[in-house]
Amino acid sequence: MLDDSPAMKDLLDFTPYANALAEFAAEKKGGGATTIGIFGPWGSGKSTLMGLVRSRLEDRGYVVVSFNAWRHDSEQGLREVFIESILSQLHERAPEDKKETASELLRTVGLFAANVGARLMTQGNAGLSDLVPSSGRRDALKRLAQFERHFVKLIGSLPGPLAIFVDDVDRCIPEHALEVLDAIKIYLEQGDCIVFVSLDPNVIARGIHSRYGDKATFTVSDYLEKIVQLSFTMPQVSQDRMAGFVEQLCADISLKHVAPLIARAADCNPRKAKRLLNSLKLVSAVVRARQPDTRDRMDDPAVLAKLLILQIRWPDVFNRIMLTPRSLNILEERARTTDQRKRDELEDKLTPGLLKAVEDAGEALDESLRQDPPLPRGFNIALYPALTGGAVSHTYRILSELLNQEQPSAGQFLAWLRSSSVDERDELLSLLVDATYSDDRRSVRAVRLLGMSGEFLSPDLKRTIVSRLFQMLSEAEKQDRGWAVSWCVRVLGQIAPTLNDPEVTEHLRSELTRIAESGKFTTARNWAKEALASL
What we know:
535 residues; 28 helices; mainly alpha
């Protein structure tokens, strides 16, 4: 299993950037703290780059200390936890005759007003004297000045220049991330040191919103400018280099050929790539253990990789494919064709819900489906959750359980609907509509469940259901599927009149009359007569 820690080797060609940042740090001469922000999204390699910079500064004789914000995220008073951690490390590195200075600093931190930092960024360029309540201003200023004097002395006593590395700030609760940045501003500003801090500006934006809401009079850039003197944005890793990175992570030679698939699916994000590869290794091991002689190519790592990527990145598409398994090959063929007419024909074979989910996923889904190797024709995707332990959404599991019952439990279904959130309920009902397109008796079970859902259906969803039921009624009659005809009639009679649409009502009356007067489908005739009597 690949761990989630920063890489010890430079597999992504970060060395030139590490060299440049270390050289910049080495040129610093006095003038208080200089903070360098390493900006990038989660998993983009910020920690790895900082590790490379750290090793270069250590080689130059720097005294290096660090703080992992995420490991302390659950602790109270993160500002003070941060500086106490830094001072404790400096206490260990200080000469014997200066250790008391470090101890004095720790005592000063305990006395300093913790709430100063929370206001430090809200008043433009105001100084500390403008931010501390007048009643405690003199004492707070005195303690801060005392801290700064001791801190400068302590840094001056160290055997080399000081470099501080602050990592995983963007893995903290957003408001806690602001506390760490507050601490850098409050406690380190006067010290002659270099500070590296890894950041995702989006997390800082959420922290500002959480702390100040709509009252904030400054932007994320305004906030960061008060703390960061130099910004470095992580470079985008190329597809080829990311594929090479994944290949080097693959100890299992059988997985090496899926490296391009993993690289593309991970959006060239190193941490995402590691997690996808770990998931693929686990799923591959489970499949081999449960069905070593599978004939559906389920043991092919490339096939598993495509399914895993689909499941993780586009769960709505994946769940809807599970309802109509034949659509997987249709989707792949659609992604691979450049003929628009052929593409339109293939789209006509997809359920409306699946087609919308595919359109929402965009070009990235098509790119993934186009990757070689193509899936075999008639591939049985239904085996995937069975062999891998049911790795599907909670909502799909509920629906699958219901549709696999010969007589779906009305009580169980309605209880689930009532206990679900609005979003979960809408997803379940939308999936039910897609399930009416399956080619087995589950389609009729889906119709029966929709008939129980009246109080939970929006007008738009009712129209979708009614349109589908008219279509399904016609198909069932042509195939002499009496059970399907009966339930389409029953549920149409329940839902269509509630739309209060004269055109829909007239269409319903016509269809019910035709069924009631036909010589076939006894149950359907009786239900049609009942529905007509209530119109």
